[in-house]
């Protein structure tokens, strides 16, 4: 007898999920089987934990995880040191007023009249500015600001009355404007 191979068309087919006339497409049954096997492999791969990382050195054990909530005792903030009080401001003396009065330079006197009303006005030129009676003269001398009121300007006689004097404090300069020694 001769070895005769059976024809391919006569081989038995594996049983599909849907048998008989209910099977819509035999190719869909194969896809369903492949998807089922893949899903089974994924589920086993995801649920199986690795015992150790293959890239860790031999004998290495990862550190134990610390508790998530850790209470830290609250320390009170230290109080900032008290700012030192500025030195007492020295009062302005009569000598300071006299020194400031000496620095006033009277350059001249002027008298003006308005022809329509006949009103006459006397002015004094003090430190290159004109002042009339009732004006306030401000002058800074030896870090003290002096204020005088001009009482009268008559016949080249200037009468000043002191109003106020205050010592000036040096304001700190911003960092970019400080001068270096």
Task: Write up what this structure looks like.
The protein has helices spanning 26-47, 94-102, and strands at 106-113, 120-126, 129-131, 136-141, 144-154, 157-167. It is of the alpha+beta class. The strands form two sheets. Strands 1-2-3 form a three-stranded antiparallel sheet, with no helix packed on it.
CA(first)-CA(last) distance: 121 Å
Rg, rounded, reads 53 Å
Average of per-residue pLDDT values: 78
- Helix/strand-derived category reads alpha+beta
Would you identify the regions where 5 or more consecutive residues have pLDDT less than 50? none
How many beta-strand elements? 6
Placed side by side, the strands forming the largest sheet appear as 1-2-3
Give me the number of helical elements: 2
Helix content: 10-25%
Shape field: elongated
Strand content: 25-35%
Detail the topology: elements first, then pairings.
Blueprint: H1 26-47, H2 94-102, E1 106-113, E2 120-126, E3 129-131, E4 136-141, E5 144-154, E6 157-167
Antiparallel strand pairs: 1-2, 2-3, 4-5, 5-6
TL;DR of this structure?
The protein is of the alpha+beta class. Helices cover 17% and strands 25% of the residues.
List keywords for this structure.
181 residues, alpha+beta, 3-stranded antiparallel beta sheet, 2 helices, 17% helix
């Amino acid at each position: 007898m001769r070895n005769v191979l059976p024809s391919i068309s006569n081989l038995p087919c594996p049983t599909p999920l849907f048998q008989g006339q209910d099977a819509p497409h035999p190719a869909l049954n194969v896809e369903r089987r492949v998807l089922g096997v893949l899903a089974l492999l994924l589920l086993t791969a995801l649920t199986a934990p690795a015992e150790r990382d293959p890239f860790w050195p031999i004998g290495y054990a990862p550190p134990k995880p610390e508790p998530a909530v850790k209470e830290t005792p609250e320390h009170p903030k230290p109080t900032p040191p008290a700012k030192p009080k500025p030195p007492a401001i020295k009062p302005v003396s009569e000598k300071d007023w006299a020194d400031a009065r000496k620095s006033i330079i009277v350059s001249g006197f002027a008298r003006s009249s308005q022809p329509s009303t006949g009103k006459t006005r006397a002015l004094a030129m003090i430190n290159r500015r004109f002042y009339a009676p009732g004006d306030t003269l401000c002058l800074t001398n030896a870090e003290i600001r002096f204020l005088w009121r001009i009482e009268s300007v008559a016949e080249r006689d200037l009468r000043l009355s002191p109003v106020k004097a205050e010592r000036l404090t040096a304001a700190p300069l911003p960092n970019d404007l400080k001068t270096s020694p």
